[in-house]
Amino acid sequence: MTADPRAADGRTVLPLDPSLAPPGSQGFRDAGGIPADKWHADQNGETLVPTHCCFCGVQCGMYLRVDRGGKVFGVEPRNHDINRMRLCPKGVNAYQQVNHPDRLTAPLMRRSRDEELREVSWDEALDFTVSEIKRIQEAYGRDAFGVLGGASLFSEKTYLVGKFARVALRTRHVDYNGRLCMVSAAGANKLAFNIDRAGNPFSDILLTDCLLLAGANVGECFPVLTQYVWGARDRGATLIVVDPRETAVARTADIHVALKSGTDSAFFNAVLNVVIEEGLTDENYLAAHATGWEEVKANAALYPPSRAAEICGIPAEQVVQVARAFACAPKAMAFHARGIEHHTQGVENCLSVINLCAATGHIGKPGAGYGTLTGQGNGQGGREHGQKADLLPGGRSILNEEHRRQICEIWGIEESELPAAGTSMMEMVWQMQRQEIRGLIGICNNPFVSLPNYAVVKDGYDTTEFHAQFDFFLSETAANAHVVFPVTIWAEDEGVMANAEARVVKHNKAQEPPAGVRTDTWVMCEIARRLGAGDKFAFGGSRDVFDELRRASAGTIIDYSGITYERLEETGGISWPCPSTDHPGTPRLFEDGKTYHADGKIHLQVVEWHPPADPYDDEHPMTLTTGRTVAHFLSGNQTRRLGALVEQTPRPWAEVHPSHGFRNGEPVRVVTRRGSEVFPALVTEAIRPDTVFIPYHWPVPTAANALTIDALDPRSKIPEYKVCACRIEHAAAIDEVPAPPVAPGHVAYPETQVSRTDPLPPTAPQGRGTSERG
């Protein structure tokens, strides 16, 4: 968004349509300036700091309200062109984290898990951490220590995580929690296009004639993105939703394909079969811009609609409907999310959607294209610059000799000092169980809630000899650690994130951190200094790191070299690649018909459907699937502490079909091969009779991920969260929801405890036919 000329009083005002300003918002909506010392608000003593939401990959613009004492006390929506004055329930409440009474404000430490955590000085916590790193690496080798990062960190910090692991610790074992989110899409994108990002901006949705959403619960996971979906509908676009549940957006769809979880590639192969059989392919486009078409075409012949109907549990006619609607549309777009990615065939599922888009020529045009909806705020940026096990900054491969040479030159190390590729997040847990990894630093993640098969995860972490965790609240994982470093929340530092469009946006610092709190950047640099690598980590803050990141990405596919903080402030965001400061960025890929493969073509891949990893039998005849709900985010470490969000959704539930005979709120035991838990039933016709849904934001004994399977996609290494075999039973009592952990000497924030014990499912309707409470 380009700023208007300065107003008479010197402020920079943003161009807004007055008709879009809600009642009472006129006073704040013109505020916001460049640079920071020009930020103003109409209320005396109040400053409005323009920034972005900390949660999902939409990255809505917002203003944080800061009082005369420098404290964040509220939020206002911002008329950024991503969200146009809209915020979801999480965005509206996000500011309450900043000065929350549960914030960690001093390092916590214990030398043994037999002890209780206690507050210590920074020097004591750092000295103990460094001594344990040295002890473990001297005794067992450098790779006996690992690092796990996070995709909610600013890109500067994700860059630093990768460099910290490989240069300060000199270990190959580094990965991040985006491994649980986007890596199936990343794997498919690299195979097909040799670039890992969405092909089109959100605004293209408003131009399309047919929108296909596969495994994407937009209304709850990306609420503000719904405006684009409905905007397309208002123009007359056909909406197709592929999801086992009738989600809020699926209820508005022209076609809702309620297929059985784990059968997506069979469905999309069958859709492609109909497109081919009815002569709806774009043969000119395929001949000019794709390879592998004949092999894909032959494979699609094996999936007639009748076969998909049998595998997917849907009418064969729906396959034909979808094929005709998508292929015959002048412009069509397909987006997917975790629903088709969280599978042992997640990469193949994504490739099957790419095959459909390419076969119909719907690639690289306004209103026509393909993309993934990112779950975490920096799910895109978090995997671009080096914290992923096999990647170096700029998306370079750690296996490529030239790429290794390039990054070693920038980092000032010898190529022989750069470790080899590491393993994925779940594989690292297995290695912890086997004592191959004996020490770990975790940054901005909560595997005790977010990883599958909790019993295995807990055992892996308990087996480690030393574990340190960075966080601003005491998560379930941090509560199990030897050292917990209290670090800044998003509003107490500055940095960039790349949203689901690959648009890089700027987060601004709104207040100083509490006394005793440090930035993640400072902590990593200080540990590196104490390990003798301080000359490689002489960063004063995010701006210094971003300057090195820009240099490290120059000339790569993921080129940030032309992006500066100043340009981001002026424009509202720039899509990479952006190779120079006069380059406008690249909102839409493939407009010239070329991909990033050497031959410039889409490399189509044959996809064969195979059953999920967890087999069905008489004891486990149903499917358990998991997902998010609108009030909460990921492991819930942030949102389960915010009163309004807890009140809206105090606990998880088991969503079941009325045919099973449960009444709303009755205890239902869900049993898998990993264990069992009891939830209140939410009875609705909006779910398949053979399927159970549980949201996953809570810890044991109400953790969906205590039940899920830790089977991985062989290419992306993403866990198969979206399908495992289960059964349901009547039970006597519902499992109690635990309070979030708090630091020693603190008590759980009472405002978040009142509704937490509510035994009934949420009041908000989850779908057609949902029973009323009570």
TrEMBL record:
Residues 1-36, 739-774 are annotated as: Disordered. Residues 46-102 form the 4Fe-4S Mo/W bis-MGD-type domain. Pfam families: Molybdop_Fe4S4, Molybdopterin, Molydop_binding. The keyword Nucleus does not apply. The keyword Metal-binding applies. Keywords: 4Fe-4S, Iron, Iron-sulfur, Metal-binding. This is Molybdopterin oxidoreductase family protein. It comes from Streptomyces argenteolus. The lineage of its organism: Bacteria, Bacillati, Actinomycetota, Actinomycetes, Kitasatosporales.
